[in-house]
Amino acid sequence: MDKDVMIRQVNCIMLVDDNKVDNFFHERVIRKNNAAKHVVVKESAEEALEYLKRKEENGDKHPDLIFLDINMPGMNGWEFLEEYGKLDKNLHCRMIVVMLTTSENPDDMDKAKSLGVLSAFKTKPLTIMMLDEILENYFD
């Protein structure tokens, strides 16, 4: 890591992606740069929602930041966001949700902006610079 880049640390980051290789790579970027005390990986949107609903059971592993893929089997990223919007509003003010996807479709970007619960739309892969920018913008 470049000594000039000072990565901030949050308590917990959740990765929601059905692609194991992407999860492995993104978790490695987060851990290598000490950006989170905990990293929670969920391979489906349904699993991620269930995890969020069990907030009390998860204690200190409740995410501050969620990286969410769009294209997943079963429930996709858009459907996740619809259900996420129905969760306790106190959760929303404490979590930042970033769409992290291979899609560069302008319609997807516009849709993401219109939802209101999404903080940012980024193209995979997660990089050190991207992670630092997100942490600086939302956790400084």
Structural Rg: 14 Å
The helix fraction, in percent, is 40-55%
The parts where pLDDT drops under 50 for at least 5 residues are none
Distance between the termini: 20 Å
Largest sheet: 5 strands, parallel
Given helix and strand content, the structural type is: alpha/beta
Outline, from the CA principal axes?
globular
Order of helices and strands: EHEHHEHHEHEH
> Which oligomeric form is depicted?
single chain
Q: If helices are DSSP runs of H or I spanning 4 or more residues, what is the number of helices?
A: 7
Strand order, largest beta sheet: 2-1-3-4-5
Feature tags:
alpha/beta; 43% helix; 7 helices; single chain
Overview of the structural elements:
By secondary structure, the chain is α/β, with parallel strands linked by helices. It has helices at residues 20-32, 45-53, 55-58, 77-84, 89-92, 106-115, 128-139, and strands at 10-16, 36-42, 65-68, 96-101, 120-123. A 5-stranded parallel sheet has the order 2-1-3-4-5, sandwiched between helices. β1 (10-16), α1 (20-32) and β2 form a beta-alpha-beta unit. The mean pLDDT is 86.
Give a short summary of the structure.
The protein is α/β, with parallel strands linked by helices and 140 residues long. Helices cover 43% and strands 20% of the residues. It has a five-stranded parallel β-sheet with strand order 2-1-3-4-5, sandwiched between helices.
Task: Please describe the topology of this protein.
Elements: E1 10-16, H1 20-32, E2 36-42, H2 45-53, H3 55-58, E3 65-68, H4 77-84, H5 89-92, E4 96-101, H6 106-115, E5 120-123, H7 128-139
